[in-house]
């Protein structure tokens, strides 16, 4: 799993690529949190378009970043999850965190 | 129902073996020509069970995980993931969605819910101090039927 961070005005995007499981989530978490704490953005977008596999560890990653961001009043959204990742996000009741498809961020 | 293929592997409880376990089940199931969706479902279900054995079962001790796979004549895949870890006091409670004993590690308490949603049946047996076994069944589409 690789994570690339893009910074914009008041938001950051974490572009995740690869398989997201318990083994790889820890590394992703570290990279994202370092930037979250540095920039304290209003919005943190987790770009899931390159996530080829995800299990419940992905839900832990989303909720954990939401917890970190909420400390400084920020929020987290998920962009472009695969149909499959979406299934797990819905199972967790987090569909409201998915950005609409035509969203321009 | 007659068994047409089976396989059993044992590996140490290490996080990097989560991907090994899901590759194994995918390779095993490939012989039955499953749909992409079925394949993703069983990879996730196996990954959840194996991750649980690693992060909960063998939380404080090292040990082995055994993955047993069986394919029957009617295209049913039987999956068993067993560990000799700490076991579960109250299985019913553990299986409730959002229940977790490791919230500080960012566990969401959804592993069993995923296994339940993505397979056709899920059975968990456990004995505190002895270990846990998770047995799942997934009916794969029979392309020659219908
Ligand atoms: N193999 C196991 N050995 C010991 N305890 C287990 C085992 N599997 C599950 N448990 C217990 O059952 C609880 C629920 O498991 P479940 O997979 O549903 O959630 P989780 O692992 O806590 O979180 P998530 O799977 O969302 O990361 C765990 O928190 C743990 O206490
Ligand atoms: Mg779990």
Structure description:
The complex is a heterodimer of chains A (105) and B (146). Chain A has 105 residues and is an alpha/beta fold. Chain A has one domain (2-97): Transcription Regulator spoIIAA (2-Layer Sandwich), CATH 3.30.750. Chain A has 3 helices and 4 strands, in the order ββαβαβα. The longest helix of chain A has 18 residues, at 22-39. Chain A starts with a strand and ends in a 14-residue tail after the last helix. Chain B has helices spanning 17-30, 36-57, 91-94, 111-118; strands at 3-12, 64-72, 76-83, 121-127, 131-139. In chain B, 33% of the residues lie in helices and 29% in strands. By secondary structure, chain B is of the alpha+beta class. The mean pLDDT of chain B is 96. Chain B has a single domain (3-139), classed as Heat Shock Protein 90 (2-Layer Sandwich). Chain B starts with a strand and ends in a 7-residue tail after the last strand. At the A-B interface, helix 1, helix 2 and helix 3 of A face helix 1, helix 2 and helix 4 of B. Magnesium ion is lined by residues 48, 51-52, 107, 111 of chain B.
In terms of topology, how is this protein built?
The complex is a heterodimer of chains A (105) and B (146).
Chain A (H helix, E strand, L loop, with lengths): L1 E7 L2 E10 L1 H18 L3 E12 L1 H15 L4 E5 L3 H9 L14
Helix pairs in contact in A: 1-2
Chain B lengths: L2 E10 L4 H14 L5 H22 L6 E9 L3 E8 L7 H4 L16 H8 L2 E7 L3 E9 L7
Helix pairs in contact in B: 1-2, 2-4
The complex binds adenosine-5'-triphosphate (ATP) and magnesium ion.
